[in-house]
Amino acid sequence: MSNGPNGPWYACLPQCESLVPCGTGQHAVRWEAGSLRLPEHPDAEGELVLAALGGEKAGCIELAEAWGRHTGDLSVLAIGPRQPADEISVSWDDVAAAAQLSQPFTGGTPHPRPMRLASQAPGLQARASARRRQVSAEMDQVRQRRNDILSLLALGYGFQVRLIGQVAAAHAARLGDQAEGSEATRPALVAAIAGRLAPAAEQWLGIDPDQVVVSLHHGPGWGSAELTGRGEERRLRVSLPPSWLAQVWACGLTLTSRHLVVAVEQPGWPQARVLALRAPGTAPVSLDLQATLGATGTPPDAPRWEVRPG
Amino acid sequence: MNRERAETFLRLLAESQIRAPQTRQQPGRRSPDAPLITLPVKVARVAWALVAVGALEGETAETILSEVEMALAARLLPEHGPSVTDPVWPSSPVAQRFPLLRPRVYRAKPAWVPVPAPASAVTGSAGGPGRYVPLGQMILFHDQAISGELDLMSYAHTATGARVVATWRARDPLGSQRHIVPPVDQFEVTDDRGNGYDLRFSTEGRPESTCDLTLDPAPPGDIRWLDITTPGEATARVDLQAAAPAAESEVSPVELSPGEHLLTKVAEGLLLQVPDLPRDPHVQAIGPGPLPWLAAGLGDVIAALQTAEVLPEDSPLPGRLATLCASLRVSGHGITAPPALDLPEPWLSLLAYYQRRKPRQTQARDDFAGLVADLPELDGFRLVLLGLHHFDHGGTWINALAMGRIPDHNGALGLDMVFPLSIWVHDSAGRWHAARPVGWYDNGGEYLLTLRLTPPLPRSGTWIEVLAAGRSAKVRTTVPLRWGYQS
Predict the structure, then answer these.
(1) Alpha-carbon distance A120 to B306, whole Å?
(2) Which terminal Cβ of chain A has fewer Cβ within 10 Å, N or C?
(3) Residue A247, class by beta-carbon neighbours within 10 Å (0-12 exposed, 13-18 middle, 19+ buried)?
(4) Given A89, A191, A199, which is nearest B78 (Cβ)?
(5) Using the beta-carbon criterion (under 8 Å), do B439 and A115 form an inter-chain contact?
(6) Which of A110, A124, A187 sits opposite B7 (nearest CB)?
(7) If you write DSSP's letter for every residue of B31-43 in order, what string do you get?
(8) Do B103 and A209 count as a contact with CB atoms less than 8 A apart?
(9) pLDDT at B66 over 80
């Protein structure tokens, strides 16, 4: 995980905790300084070895494994929340129910065709058998992926945005480093930013979210934002660096005191200095912000930032 | 082709649909087994289109679609779904909110089948695989239990064996029953050299009462005739030396972009759905029927294709589709291009047929015709037409053999993109008939394929012109018909 010139992307985020079913009870899991921690399992690695030898794997350990499997998964950006009001309703009961649905996929009929074979040649039977094995293996992957995602969503909003931040930061760094294959992530990052900026822009300017056009900004500076056209042709065209998603959005900074935050100048918790736009086409201004948690109408782990008095 | 822009378009469309309030409103009553989440049709349609033109990997499309489904499911709040006291509330909500989505059609890879060299498949040539002979000959059979006729349309000898393509009708002493299988195990078959053969009966890939009779063992490639003796009848000689009259084929290049080829197939899909609709046009116009459903999201598909740079901005296809939708009284397609007046002649012919409002009227009684047309390879795909028959209740069918690339999946959302060609038949009265693939069977590297003509072909013609079009070229072939029932 790369740290920007102003520190790690999560410098504006406090720790958060959630309770997870583990064994017959519940254990706390904690996110702190960019890492998932298991306070009730100080020897998590040792437990993993025991599980590999046939022992039962603790719920916390399974969760940590799921977290680890998805810290680079762009699907997290597509599935996870877009804003605090974007309520996701997955409970641990859902996770348990999903885990119990373990009936293996038996192949089934690929698709109806008007006319079917009465008897198949040996070669066709072998191909069909190989196809069934392939489908079965794919279904195992699909099943684990679904259960992983449900578990991570059940952790709640605070963990969801932090995982999104971690995924976004990782891919932003790879894009910045021009790592091999990193350009393939551009569509997912554009959509992830657009999906989160658009509702914020609606609050900011009253613009239809579908009229927000996002592109990725590369190079020095924070990017650009301009309003063009009228009526149905009206567009808010915003170019932001991929790191915006982690450094600004994941930290709950997107819209603060009627300003659109475009960059973080001095990160920190609960105080930070950001670069923000009062309106499209204007020069950004520095704002000193103060954060609080537990604002009414927002998830408990969603920070609320306001301009610091004085 | 710009794949990055294609994927970005789909992802942004997905974002828009996830954000839309109506997407999150699930219908109140449903089957207990139905999934609670359905993909927004625009997203599914655009994903399918981009995969079909090669602008998006199937695996990427699957990933995006599964993300959309998961995102929608995760946002389905209980108070937005059915009440827990509602008897339709699913007994297993997790399974229905988050169904295990097996890989879809999008990931299926094309099944590549090598196309035999054209030199080995000269129409009517003797001496080996690739021999096709039109027949148009009726053979009778009858015994105490069954009587009927076998209508031989063509003889085809290819790498997978020699077969006669035929239709049959049979009845038992109690009355007419089409579905009785002819007693081919009682047939005696010999060739001009005295070799005897069994007939293996198969209906795979063929419509009702149509079959392939494969000769076992495979005969030499240059046999001159087959003598067939059936129960209760004298021996009938089937002449295999009557080479098919040389077909007049004209191959010409076409320069269709992948997007234009796709939209052409979409248009033909719309045209071919009409006969399956209720006859009352007012019923058709009331949604949500098949046509509005097929047309939903077409505007987004066009925008996606243009964004992906596989559909030129000045292409006439969007305007033609707009006109077609208007002619079929389909709304809600979202096409913004102004309607174009220059519809292709086959489309106009089919529209005129529909507008006569007799789309279900049968135009011909039962009959069959010997017919062979070995079409030149188009887009890696070769088609050999092996006979044509009418059923009074079922329209007109063309039996064919296909070699080449047939992807191992169906098209999405009712639009069939498996069959890579557009096939139209022009009759001697000047009308056009669309040929729709309705069944195929993998016969060890060759596909036994059946095409259904819409509208049915009138029996009066002595020839048909076949127009087959791919992306890179089209071929027009005039083929004589050898009708079985000489009037």
Answers:
(1) 43
(2) C
(3) buried
(4) A89
(5) yes
(6) A187
(7) -TTS-S----HHH
(8) no
(9) yes
- B230 and B138 in a common domain: yes
Q: Does any domain span residue B433?
A: no
Residue B326 has pLDDT above 60, yes or no: yes
- The residue among B180, B206, B239 that closes a domain is B239
| Mean pLDDT value of segment B274-290 | 50
pLDDT value, residue B81: 43
Distance from the Cα of B21 to chain A's closest Cα (Å) equals 12
Is pLDDT larger for residue B79 or for residue A307? A307
Residue B12 in contact with partner chain A when CB distance is under 8 A: yes
pLDDT, tens digit, 9 for 90 and up, residues B8-32: 999 999 999 999 876 666 555 555 5
Q: B219 and B179 in one domain?
A: yes
Over residues A161-165, the mean pLDDT reads 97
pLDDT of residue B255: 82
Kindly state whether residues B9 and B103 are assigned to the same domain.
Answer: yes
> Average pLDDT of B355-368?
62
Contact B95 A187 (CB under 8 A): no
- Lookup result for tokens 């191992």: B408
Q: Within the 318-377 window of chain B, which residues sit less than 8 Å (CB to CB) from chain A?
A: none
Q: Which of A113, A150, A194 sits opposite B15 (nearest CB)?
A: A194
Residue ranges with strand state E in A138-258:
212-216, 224-228, 235-240, 255-256
Q: Which has more pLDDT, A67 or B378?
A: A67
Can you tell me the distance from the alpha carbon of B253 to that of B469, in angstroms, rounded to the nearest whole number?
9
- Rounded mean pLDDT, A165-190: 92
Judging contacts by C-beta atoms under 8 Å, the chain B residues touching residue A209 are 16, 19
Among the partner residues B70, B103, B444, nearest to A149 by beta-carbon distance:
B70
**Nearest CA-CA distance, residue B181 and chain A, Å:** 15
Alpha-carbon gap: A243 to the closest alpha carbon of chain B (Å): 18
Touching check for B102 and chain A: CB below 8 Å? Answer: yes
**Residue B235, min C-alpha distance to chain A (Å):** 31
Q: Which of B67, B93, B203 sits opposite A79 (nearest CB)?
A: B67
Q: How far away is chain A from the Cα of B281, in angstroms, using its nearest Cα?
A: 27
Structure tokens at B143: 């015994």
Q: Is the pLDDT of residue B373 over 80?
A: yes
CA distance A307 to A286: 10
Tokens of A70: 């998805």
Q: Is B75 on the interface with A (CB under 8 A)?
A: yes
Range of the domain at B50: 3-109
Same domain? For B36 and B129 the reply is no
For residue B325, is it within any domain?
no
pTM for the model: 0.81
Question: Per-residue confidence at B237, pLDDT binned at 50, 70, 90?
Answer: very high
Of the candidates A301, A211, A310, A271, the residue with the CA atom closest to the CA atom of residue A11: A271
Tokens of A222: 């924070």
- Measure the CA–CA gap between A259 and A276, rounded to whole angstroms: 6
**Number of domains within chain B:** 2
Is the pLDDT at A105 greater than 50, yes or no?
no
Residue B107 has what pLDDT?
41
